[in-house]
Amino acid sequence: MDVDSASPGFVSATPAGFRLNGQPFRVAGANSYYLPYAGGQATEAVFQLAARMGLNTLRTWAFLDCGPAAPGETPANAKNGVFFQYWNEALGRPDYNDGPDGLQRLDHIIALAERWNIRLILPLVNYWPDFGGVDQYLQWFGLTGRAQFYLHPETRQAYRNYLEHIVLRVNTETGREYREEPSILAWELMNEPRCVDTDGSWLPGGTDTLAAWVDEMSAILKQLDPVHLAGAGDEGYFRKSWSWGRPLYNGRFGVDHERLLALPGIDFGVCHLYPNYAANEDAAAFGVRWIQEHLDAGRRAGKPVVVEEFGVKTADEAARNSIFGTWLDAVDAGNGAGAAVWMIASTVDGATLYPDYDGYTVYSAESVPALTAFARSGGV
Description:
By secondary structure, the protein is of the alpha/beta class. It has helices spanning 35-38, 40-52, 103-116, 133-140, 147-151, 153-167, 206-224, 257-262, 283-301, 317-333, 369-377; strands at 11-14, 17-20, 23-25, 27-31, 57-59, 65-69, 85-88, 93-96, 119-123, 184-188, 229-231, 269-273, 305-310, 338-342.
């Protein structure tokens, strides 16, 4: 490869924030997880909405892991017939679907992002069972307990193989390897990694296990792709010595955000922000504190931090917008590297809206003027 992370067209990370073509780049973005399996008009509609909102970044899944199938067949748990990775019954191992109902969908998303001048953040696996994730890897190899994903040699190798397959894939629409695609802002090793016991309780050594896995896999990723940024994708939970009884701060989920942020293969930090975190505390005030704590952690580590998921469940759009405005003001005040709402969606057939499954969905720029204002007020 003849490019590096400071090359024109690629986003780079500095202690002061992201840079693009020598100028500051602040993420003003949104999540939209269903792009890989939406297809056609539904995918294009999300990019159109993002453009109307003035957004410069979308975060969507670069994974869709499924169960067993014979070559040429569709696994039972494919999403709308779409799957990226599955258990090949003929080969007796995980295999990849590089065709039109597989990774060509991701090819198209990357090409669309370039067309719309939008950058992509792409996690490579899910901690949660949605769309396969860690549980699907465990099922492939007859394992139990999500911590085994990080420890067992077969799951570790399967993940490394998928990482390599994705990063080195040649996009059928652009003709470039993914590691050469300027529309990709960053890879994330996992969406919301945790390391807990089988029942979800605290696991001795969980933070060590997760940190070692992130350290190893980020080094492999950076060796294959030194151009794009790498993130862990964690929710931002801390592990503080003073925090007994406080699950956001005591390592209860096997996550030590500051330890992950300090790893040499991790270029930027993220946090996820939802009001249900707040116990007996105003949602807006909690969010400001959570944002400030993570921006402070980023400054100590010398790395930029993005509030890459934030959302509020309410039928009152004005109240939601007010809370969003308070949080985005905190990102501005703290010189944060940006923020991305969870989530945006549009029509799936030109008329019918994608369902609001989780109660967080934003369907229009007019419903969240605070986000549109944030998008238009900074960066490039």
